[in-house]
Amino acid sequence: MIEVTDKEFKGLYEEFLNGHPKKAAKLIERYLSRFELWKSGEKVPYHEHIKKLIYRNGMVFDESHEHGVFDVDIVVPDKRNDRVVYIKVYSADFGWEARGKALEALNDTSQSNYYFRSVIPFDYIMCYGISVYKKKCEIRYKKVKLRKYKMIENKRTYYRENYNV
């Protein structure tokens, strides 16, 4: 497993704030192709064609279908550091094409909302709010102290929760 440092994640987040979504998209692409399938320490059962896509691309798809639109969650793990990159995107497609939709939504910063909330049960989730419908991204730490700070960039307010053990 290749170790991903805090500096790399910080650099990815700063690319968003500095208005370079294409650079951030390239970094996301690198992470998507670099990690093993993992979700809560277990491989998740999916349909056979979805399984092949997951193993090939090193990520977890969790999808639901409502009103003709797929809600796709892409989870990219870093087990060594007990954290994952969590990407949420709404798409009319699923499977392989959902990955392209996620990167496409990442490039459209005017329709993206960046929030950090405590909801999903992972040790660490770096969430970039990729969604064409401005959905929230979510993170959770286990047994940690919470410190919040606010960053304002280009007339938008970005919230991030900074945790210390």
What does this structure look like?
- By secondary structure, this protein is of the alpha+beta class.
- It has one domain.
- Helix content is 28%, strand content 28%.
- The strands form 2 sheets. A 4-stranded mixed beta sheet has the order 1-2-3-4, covered by helices on one side.
- β5 and β6 form a beta hairpin.
- The radius of gyration is 15 Å and the shape is globular.
- The two termini are 24 Å apart.
Label the overall shape: globular
Structural class: alpha+beta
Largest sheet: 4 strands, mixed
How many domains comprise the coordinates?
Answer: 1
Major β-sheet strand ordering: 1-2-3-4
Secondary structure: helix percent: 25-40%
Oligomer: single chain
How far the N terminus sits from the C terminus, by CA atoms, comes to 24 Å
Give a brief rundown of this model:
By secondary structure, this protein is α+β, with helices and mostly antiparallel strands.
Task: Give short descriptive properties of this protein.
four-stranded mixed beta sheet, 28% helix
Spell out the blueprint of helices and strands.
Blueprint: H1 6-17, H2 21-32, H3 48-57, E1 60-66, E2 69-78, E3 83-91, H4 96-107, E4 125-127, E5 145-153, E6 156-164
Parallel strand pairs: 3-4
Antiparallel strand pairs: 1-2, 2-3, 5-6
Helix pairs in contact: 1-2, 2-4
